[in-house]
Amino acid sequence: MQLKPVLILIFFLLLPNLPDASTTEKPLLGFTEKQAAAQQALETKFDSLLKSSNLKEWMQRLSARPHHTGSPYGKENAQFIAELFRSWGYQTEIEEFKVLFPTPRTRLLEMEAPTRYQTELSEPEVKEDHTSGQKNEQLPTYNAYSIDGDVTGELVYVNYGVPKDYDELKLRGVDVRGKIVIARYGESWRGVKPKVAAEHGAIGCIIYSDPQNDGYYQGPVYPEGGYRNENGVQRGSVLDFTEHDGDPLTPFIPATENAKRIPREKSNAITKIPVLPISSKDALPLLRTLSGPVAPESWRGSLPISYRIGPGPAKVHLKLEFNWDLATIRDVIARMPGAEFPDQWIIRGNHHDAWVNGATDPISGLVALLEEARVVAELAKTGWKPKRTLIYAAWDGEEQGLLGSTEWVEAHRDELQQKAVAYLNSDSNSRGFLSVEGSQTLEKFMNQVSRDVEDPQKKISIQDRSRAYLILQGTPEDKKDARNREDLRVRAAGSGSDYTPFLQHAGIASLNIGFGGEEEYGQYHSIYDSFDHYIRYMDPSFEYGLALAKTGGRCMLRLANAEVVPFEFKGFADNITQYVKSLQDLTDKMREETEDRNKSIQDKTYEAYFDPTKTYITPESQGTVPHLNFSPLQNAAERLEKSANEYQKAYKDRMDQSGEVPEKLITDLNAILTHTERALTRKEGLPGRLWFTHQIYAPGVYTGYEAKPLPSISEAIEQRNWKLAEDQILVVAQTLDRFTSEVERAKAILQDGKEKK
Amino acid sequence: MQLKPVLILIFFLLLPNLPDASTTEKPLLGFTEKQAAAQQALETKFDSLLKSSNLKEWMQRLSARPHHTGSPYGKENAQFIAELFRSWGYQTEIEEFKVLFPTPRTRLLEMEAPTRYQTELSEPEVKEDHTSGQKNEQLPTYNAYSIDGDVTGELVYVNYGVPKDYDELKLRGVDVRGKIVIARYGESWRGVKPKVAAEHGAIGCIIYSDPQNDGYYQGPVYPEGGYRNENGVQRGSVLDFTEHDGDPLTPFIPATENAKRIPREKSNAITKIPVLPISSKDALPLLRTLSGPVAPESWRGSLPISYRIGPGPAKVHLKLEFNWDLATIRDVIARMPGAEFPDQWIIRGNHHDAWVNGATDPISGLVALLEEARVVAELAKTGWKPKRTLIYAAWDGEEQGLLGSTEWVEAHRDELQQKAVAYLNSDSNSRGFLSVEGSQTLEKFMNQVSRDVEDPQKKISIQDRSRAYLILQGTPEDKKDARNREDLRVRAAGSGSDYTPFLQHAGIASLNIGFGGEEEYGQYHSIYDSFDHYIRYMDPSFEYGLALAKTGGRCMLRLANAEVVPFEFKGFADNITQYVKSLQDLTDKMREETEDRNKSIQDKTYEAYFDPTKTYITPESQGTVPHLNFSPLQNAAERLEKSANEYQKAYKDRMDQSGEVPEKLITDLNAILTHTERALTRKEGLPGRLWFTHQIYAPGVYTGYEAKPLPSISEAIEQRNWKLAEDQILVVAQTLDRFTSEVERAKAILQDGKEKK
């Protein structure tokens, strides 16, 4: 009889992380307790119907031949996908657009001096890879939307080719005007490299894959391992997305057959200088030949050479000509109308076009989406119907610049802004950890989903796995959050896949999900992104493909069935507060660094330090960084936080009661919640970036993929435009206040139902 | 008339760093104002007599043939150096010792599986290098004091081969027992690598030069540049210095002809497993053949391979046999007796032995010492005589383990401890920035010297150049100090040159000085450390050789002539306070990391994170890091700081008055000051390291070269021996108190002269 307390004690010692009662009950945001139980039963059934063999079979089918935008097999794939959807009962159509898609006619890169070297510009067949020999259908290695050009000049190595690299060049007295630059892939989105090079006066740009970034430095190379071998080349678009995404000839409007197109010469989206990607094998003879200053330590890659900057003596000739044709893109759109709210749309998308065979990018994500859609349809045959309309999309033309999704959003913008509840995106997928980026109003929702999906390798939740990753591999802040914060953060979205037109142009709450981190990823945009590669180095058993289907499927089923659409604002408010703090820290750091640098300039510390046998230019002193008035933003963030807390309390008080909630209240509440994300947009867009209307999330102008939270302010600060920064602090504060008043309206509805105010 | 104030304003704007009046007056610690003026005139004359052509000529002569310990040309060099000293009027003798110095009889390293590779183990002649072909006299590439051995085993890559690398291996389930390890040079002193390997059960150790550390990654390689080419091998001693320096057969006693030697088998200083250094060219086929886990990112060097850990499939056979002979070493000792205080010795040394031709190491420092000595002798012919005795030493056997200096110190220990005021060391020298390490009681003195020597390239003081370096290249703490602290810090001394027996064994205040940072240093301990290399990549015009002569010469002349020997304690006290703070920070950081790791172990975070397709072992949890009682040390540091301040005030009050200071007071004061450093030693030595008596400075057991300030405490903390740490806090506090009471005695003498207490 005395044993019991001791046992309990031991029990707690052994299970220190015993989930608390609330987690065990698994509440579902937007569902009553009873509905939640039904929903969870539905999800269990959903899981049980998923088959990994489908993923494998479809991947093999869809990646069997090169299927880039406008290719014969791309068209076949679109038809195959549409046929699948139709066979499952979806209302399916293929929506076509006509977009500018240049393909190469001439590609020449040779070193003319001090010795001659003719680059190969090709990726050879690998006998272990059954699709690598499909030479007739493979797109050559090139960067789409490079301008035509024929230039000859001395070569300069510019590291990643981002603005700060040019500061280092300036410090060393190296000027790229009239030169051809060679940059390595990485750090920024590739299109930033020729853009910045042109801004500095370069006449041509070469981009190569350094083995440090995805080659032998990372691990064994293909086919012995999954990393990029010396022949692998990263194709890719270099379209300038600063002003808008999508077809460069039809900004803001759908690229229909008869759309009014701007002349190609008028487009700001095409590069100003010719640009070509090459392999590390082709880069080695060029880089080896450079003399001049030894590159700074952080610039040095893993080729067996001294990385030197030049200019020259390597002199190269770059000649590029393209067929500037329009290509037809084919978006596959499959609908399952909602039984109760057909005009509330839940959209799920993944692109289907690739650069070559694209087993990983994008088929690994697409096959999970397809299996998810198949099982949803199967459930719909058993009596269950979604309350809201489900739309499954397979986008074309993503690789060129999110063309398929953007043109579709532009074609249906008004209707989407009226009806879309949320957009859920995926793209490449592999073995490892879930990552989520996008709208933080869905943070709580997403955490409830990740809590309920099991990691296929570990038999713990995918959320707990992510948490472990953040604790052991994250930044100190990540670690702190992962240990102490209830929900894992949804990261701010930059760009790089099809959520951008939905979220950042149309203001539709969006999430991008995918697994990864345990693969050997060196095939990106090369002919070696193949089925053979995928099943050896990415997700051999497709178990993470299934995990993606489970995750995406839960998202869709919950969004489709929830009584109240599952938006929540506390997590969002907390992220906003963090971003405001980051901007203050950024400004303080810039102030400190500027003062420090100016002091060293004034004290002639640079002159005292520099090696006189080498060229060094003292940097120019910069104006003092003022203390900006962040208070409007701080106050707006605090108002948001307060409202978010009150909304949560009101929601809890109203919805967690056992009695029925009036339908009218639910309808009114959903009408507001569905549109809250739109309140974060301004039709004036970001400064100089009209198309990007979202005031909280945007890709950085000089980062490309990476998110810039509160972009108008952060970029103004980085550009030292203090006036603009203070203006934008006001604009964003007003935007947040508009959002907060929507939260207040939602709260009032919840409270009104209970008590008159 | 109104113009003047404006002009003054402009003047200050243009010269923001105008030296203040006290700097302009250039006071000299230990000198009255009048004496200081005479001293500065002497130094100006000294400078004017220095000739760089001598440095060049002697370097060419001394590095003309290989001159390692025991070699014919080493003997010739000793005689040549002695003859120079004699010709200048020094009382010169060559003091001989007989030391154990093994040379290789058999060197074999071959890969037996999965393919065969026979290593070359040789450095080829380079036609641009005129001494690189002297094959008959070059010592082969080897590590001296490796044990004989004939072992075969699978290979494991262990990064730098320091203890934390073995933690990483353990995490990956890799055991080196029965294996041969391959480590890269760098991070630790080389002898640590086979020591740690043996402690973990390895049966052999290979050390190679990765191009990342001093090869093409750093810059162009020899002969196109100065960095190590693929054939360069770093020779070097692997004698275990944990217990003592010097001849392994005669610890604590001089290795005279008839000294009582311990049997070689009884020496703990010889490695436990065979060890051999190789080139990157020989390492590449071995490393390329390893499979197993991909090495952690910080382990990866610059060879064009995936760095993998193994074990195997590379299986290597290592066979080493040595001639275990005694060699005669020849220290050249040259004296100029002091005119007033012949029994107060100022000692200056630089070794003369090399691994091969050794133009940089050690001849670049030695020729500066010789020129310094020549001009000092020349001055002595013009009427001036040093008050104190000057001793110039050219040590032999430094490369094997500071043999020449150590045996000499052991031979003369009692007399040295009675008479030596200070020891000033140099070794390799090149273009760049002054660095100083050693006794911080000489920090003020050294800063006054570096303030008065002009940088040959910049025409500012070498101190201002160092300051600029610290501001632009130092750690945040360095930068803060360089901007705000009056004196640049003298860094704590580790080991790696001949100051160790003086400072850390005999307790004689010592400094190690040298220039560098702008050279291309990849010739270390190879046949390419030659005159041809030196004049292309190190200090082509010998202007930094002259700067070293000026710096060393000023030190010697000031120490020789000062009325009061120029020790000062405020800077020392400040450094001690900083070290105490660092130990607290170290303990706090260990506590935090331990707690964090234990929490992740307890929560099964590691299991949740690990990739299940790879082997990972969860680390073992460690005991909590207690809060140590640092208060005895903090209180001792505060007492020291207080006394140091009071001493400085008393000194200023007494010595800066215009009147005469009684000779008796000076004599008494000097008698104390000369011996203060001895108060920092304990005859019991450091725990387990009897020979190392200094309680403030010692090389780390597992770092080798790098200093461990307050070594007994810091190593106890790192070994998590909390009991020992607290014991040693008391011991060091007592030692500091003993030192402080010496400072108090000195202060009392200064005060007694003025007022009765």
Describe this structure in words.
Two copies of one chain form a homodimer. Chain A is of the alpha/beta class and 757 residues long. Chain A has three domains: 69-100 and 327-561, Zn peptidases (Aminopeptidase, 3-Layer(aba) Sandwich), CATH 3.40.630.10; 103-323, Glucose Oxidase, domain 1, CATH 3.50.30.30; 570-754, Transferrin receptor-like, dimerisation domain (Transcription Elongation Factor S-II, Chain A). Helix content of chain A is 41%, strand content 15%. Chain A is built from 25 helices and 16 strands. In chain A, the strands form three sheets. Chain A has a seven-stranded mixed beta sheet with strand order 1-11-13-12-14-16-15, sandwiched between helices. In chain A, helix 15 (462-473) runs antiparallel to helix 16 (476-484). Chains A and B meet through helix 15, helix 20 and helix 21 of A and helix 15, helix 20 and helix 21 of B.
